[in-house]
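README: folding subset

This subset contains proteins for which both the sequence and a predicted structure token string are available. Records are stored as plain text. Below is the entry for Acyltransferase (167 residues), shown exactly as it appears on disk.
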Amino acid sequence: MRNTTRYPVHGANPLWQMYKTVSFWKVMKSFAVIQLARYTPFLSWKNWLYRTFLRMEVGEHTAIALMVMMDTMFPELIKIGRNSVIGYNTTILAHEYLVDEYRLGEVRIGDNVLIGANTTILPGVTIGDGAIVAAGTVVHKDVAPGAFVGGNPMQVIREGTASKETE
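--- output ---
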């Protein structure tokens, strides 16, 4: 089970009521910063934008590729360790709106993690240090440190093994 907090709603679905849960101006600011960062070719500028304007934690030397889509409503719930690589067109979500509730969950990506292109990371998951996530994976549960995972549904391809780089 993912580590999310559930918020039941009444009446119309939560997405229809989203500006009761998050400020319109916060979403607009986040969207503008994220769009700028998605196309910025300079990794240091991109990380600065995320840290400064979205209050995300992004570790030193982390490389976030072109077109990565961060959560526009709750980007401050995304924590990425140092020296990690987030592949092209990956989506990182810290919220999900369902029919009768919405859920929020912190996303933690460790140090020295490789996330392949076109991956979707759902709210409330932790990806341990040194893990590898294959391209196109839907990360719907925690990934152990050093593990290699892939697919939809996500499968463990190789169990995690501790190494000196990730300790």
